[in-house]
Amino acid sequence: MAGEITETGELYSPYVGLVYMFNLIVGTGALTMPKAFATTGWLVSLILLVFLGFMSFVTTTFVVEAMAAANAQLHWKRMETHKEEEDEDSSTASDSDILTQDNYERAEKRPILSVQRRASPTLFDITDRVEMGQMASMFFSKVGVNLFYCCIITYLYGDLAIYAAAVPLSLMQVTCSAAGNDSYGVEADTKHNDTDPCWGPVRRVDAYRIYLAAFTLLLGPFTFFDVQKTKYLQILTSLMRWIAFAIMIVLALIRIGNGQGEGHPPLANFAGIRNLFGVCVYSFMCQHSLPSLITPISSKRHLTSLVLLDYALILAFYGLLSFTAIFCFRSDSLMDMYALNFARCDILGLAPVCFFLGLFPVFTISTNFPIIAVTLRNNWKTLFHREGGTYPWVVDRVVFPTITLVPPILVAFCTHDLESLVGITGAYAGTGIQYVIPAFLVFLSRRDTRLAFGYGTVNKHRSPFRHTFWVGFVLLWAFSCFLFVTANIVLTETKL
């Protein structure tokens, strides 16, 4: 019902949830996709994009099914607790502490293992927000829980490193181009080296590191405190992102329509698959945020169909963005952050629009960095937390925030190669979060559901890919990707 409140906030309609999921998946990571497309070739890129989108959809349905199974267990425990309280009240009201004959017979017939529970369909309603960490603790062993948190932490470190590099890189590209009086236009495709001058004796790499230091000093302190994303901030950043995406697509289409498109991408170039794979996995990442996104949806009757529609729209958008980019710009002129190709202004001649496109990653990423940093810090705390234990003030307020902030800043200090950062983060930690963890969650949750409620129990939110084959296929695909990416990195570095 409208206005009803859950712990995740106000409930919203399925179509609002569809928009939220679209916004969650299509983030600034999409800006690294055009260069990966141009490097790999348009046909191979399209095939891989569609296939990885399909695999992400499969594991999304796995997570939804595991969420429903976790909710069923929580609902059953509450029902059992409520029943025990009622039994205690009735026994207290009686004159004797001895069970009546009916209660005695019912207790004798109740199995020791709860195999014979009868689960109603409403038991699987997704009403409680059960985060992936909580599901891991419910279905995984202790070792599995620790591995889960290690994977999440690694991914969040990669996320922070990407964000920490993207903001200074955007600022450096825009301000150094302005200082150097570059011809503001996409035709000015001059490639700059880090050692090229920016402001007099200050090199471009020096400007990048100055901006990185300023970024750290301004946003780093938020890691030491609690911060929340407000509704209005989310609306503002989403609005800016979609305005920027729309402008880039329209400008590229105008340029192609006027016969000024310079892109001639190859059909296939298998050497670029490693980075494209990582970029695509990163760009379809949503599994770790599904509990917070799906739980508040008011009606989940057609949830799977809506998720499928979302993925189809996202595939269409990624294809449109990437194809307009690779046919508008030469492959060697596409930048790691696609928006920076529009930081020069001879298409429109409107400097404010060009500066907006060049700097929009700064605005959107800067608002997300503190939130991800706090999330990483809290995951560190959870990983080392022991039942009933508390952390000393220094450890809680200094050590955990420091180990959260320092590593990604050091990585960003050493490199601003966003394509490689996104590729490695997506290919390794992203593979774990998007494929391995959902596959194990759904497999173990199905086993626990059968043990708890019997083999005939049907989870109404079960995945369309309910056969065990799909779990094995996802795990095999994840293992194959891990081997391929590792071998590709080794061969590339050794130039074999």
What percent of residues adopt helix (DSSP H or I)?
Answer: 55-70%
Number of helices: 15
For the largest beta-sheet, the strand count, sense and barrel status come to: 2 strands, antiparallel
By secondary-structure content and strand pairing, the structural class works out as: mainly alpha
DSSP strand content:
under 5%
CATH homologous superfamily?
A: Amino acid/polyamine transporter I
Number of domains: 1
Topology-level CATH name: Amino acid/polyamine transporter I
Q: What average pLDDT do the residues reach?
A: 81
Provide tags for this entry.
496 residues, mainly alpha, Amino acid/polyamine transporter I, two-stranded antiparallel ribbon, 67% helix, disordered N terminus, transmembrane helix, glycoprotein, transmembrane, AA_transpt_TM
Please give a structural write-up.
The chain is mainly alpha-helical. The protein has a single domain (about 5-75, about 120-495), classed as Amino acid/polyamine transporter I (Up-down Bundle). Helix content is about 65%, strand content about 0%. The protein contains 15 helices and 4 strands. It has helices at about 15-25, 35-40, 40-95, 100-110, 130-140, 140-180, 205-220, 230-255, 275-285, 290-295, 305-330, 350-385, 395-415, 420-455, 470-495; strands at about 5, 10, 195-200, 200-205. Strands 1-2 form a two-stranded antiparallel sheet. Residues about 1-5, about 95-115 and about 180-190 have low confidence and may be disordered.
What does the secondary structure layout of this molecule look like, with pairings?
Layout: E1 5-6, E2 9-10, H1 14-25, H2 33-40, H3 42-93, H4 101-109, H5 132-139, H6 142-179, E3 197-199, E4 202-203, H7 204-219, H8 231-257, H9 273-283, H10 290-294, H11 303-328, H12 351-384, H13 393-414, H14 418-453, H15 468-494
Antiparallel strand pairs: 1-2, 3-4
Helix pairs in contact: 1-11, 2-3, 2-9, 2-11, 3-9, 3-11, 3-14, 6-7, 6-12, 6-13, 6-14, 8-11, 8-12, 9-14, 12-13, 14-15
